[in-house]
Design goal:
This protein has no helices and 13 strands. The chain is globular. Strands 1-8-6-4-5-2 form a six-stranded mixed sheet, with no helix packed on it. It has a five-stranded antiparallel sheet with strand order 9-13-12-10-11, with no helix packed on it. The protein is an all-beta fold and 160 residues long. The model has no long low-confidence stretch (mean pLDDT 91).
Length: 160
């Protein structure tokens, strides 16, 4: 079991992949399952091209992603296992197409920017709407509050 290594003076905004607020949320149906190597929570997911059934998702892809992997308890961990943000292969992956989520970006987030999906990893990064981010594709999510790189913030498809 790991020991706490960081203490903050302020309450955390949330955990990446966590639903935020009471606005409607839209998921991919039927609920896909994690592909080989598992799927990371709070990252973007694409349909696995190796699965002709279309039911498997992975954190890499081309073109627009299906959505962001939601933090939802779908996997039982044993008492001796570490907590993780990885949904194991074959387990259900709640994937959000639209709504409000807490995510963390590999870049600083500025209110009003768009959230881009890194094609090689699925990691969210931010950039100007209609702009380009190397190795990433623009998603339908927007930044709803500023945050430093790797700090949780609100991303939404529902504009105020």
């Amino acid at each position: 079991m790991p020991f706490q290594t960081k203490v903050s003076a302020e309450i955390a905004r949330g955990i990446p992949g966590q639903r935020y607020g009471g606005n409607p949320i839209s998921h991919v149906f039927p609920t896909p399952v994690a592909g080989p190597g598992g799927v990371r929570v709070g990252y973007f997911a694409w349909a696995d091209p190796a699965d002709v059934s279309g039911r498997t998702v992975i954190n890499t892809g081309t073109g627009k992603p299906l959505g962001i992997v939601q933090r939802e308890k779908t996997v039982r961990l044993g008492a001796d296992e570490e907590a993780t943000m990885l949904i194991p292969e074959g387990c259900a992956v709640p994937t959000v197409r639209a709504g409000d989520l807490i995510i963390a970006s590999g870049t600083a987030a500025v209110y009003g920017q768009k959230v881009f999906a890194t094609l090689a990893t699925g990691q969210p990064v931010t950039g100007d709407a209609g702009g380009t981010v190397a190795g990433a594709v623009e998603s339908n999510f927007s930044v709803r509050e500023a945050a430093a790189a790797d700090e949780p913030f609100l991303a939404s498809t529902i504009m105020a």
